Amino acid sequence: MHICVCVKQTPDSSSVYVDPISGQVDYERFVQVLNPADACALEAAVRLKEQLGGTVLALTLGPTDTESALRAALAMGADTAIRLWSPQASEWGPFTIATVLAACIKREATMPDVVLCGDASSDWASGAVGPALAELLDLPQITGVVQLKVLSEQHQEIVRLQVQRRLERGYREILEAQPPMLMTVTSDLNEPHYPSLPAHMAALRAKIPVLDPLTLPGDILHIESDETTLLEVHTPRPRPRRIAAPDSRHSAFERIGEIVAGGATGRKTRLVEGSNEDLAKVLVEFLRERGFL
Q1: Global pTM?
Q2: DSSP letters of 117-151?
């Protein structure tokens, strides 16, 4: 099985600083890392390779410093990596980027059986590259994947995957799919493993080819409308701390203690033992007393 993973290097969210006076982002403070959702996509690709065999290609579009993301991908288990870059690429939007990635994938000797992307990047989070890439490659797609399981064995010719995807309002959808296909995964899919030191050293010594996307076949620089209008940049507002209201039946001293403790003094726990039927009855009674049922 040939798997292609599209990755992106993004700033670590903890290193982003916005000047409160000018409203400008301090780019010099950025610590660049592999996009978390892309790291989960790469981990899923490596696990598929271990179960079914095959190769993993890591692909990105970016300047020289983005090679660190590709080297992280090689250390995690990718077999090869390709970097695309042109000075004009800094002005490209998600649909032009998807066109470039599709042109690079099509030039490969064999089309990938599975293309994996992160559902969104941690910087702009447009979520448009993956679906646009599926359209350009004429592949069926599954977005928002939170669970991935292989149903077929390694010796079987037909590969079957069981996929659980996230829907609106907390719903989940379970699908069974067969390659070729494209999947966009969330950062909840798995926990990427930490590469070993020999893998890191081998990734640092690896040579990563660089391709000019303008030399790829196809209409790369098509006219793209402005998808996003940036109105304001600001740091995320911290969530307000919830302070439990003290019990009015208590004394002033006790109410002050409840406020200081965040309401912890007014909480009560109850340990219930018994059969499953007894536990279910107690739980239903608890929910009814508090108006949930």
Answers
A1: 0.73
A2: EESS-SSS----HHHHHHHHHT--EEEEEEEEEE-
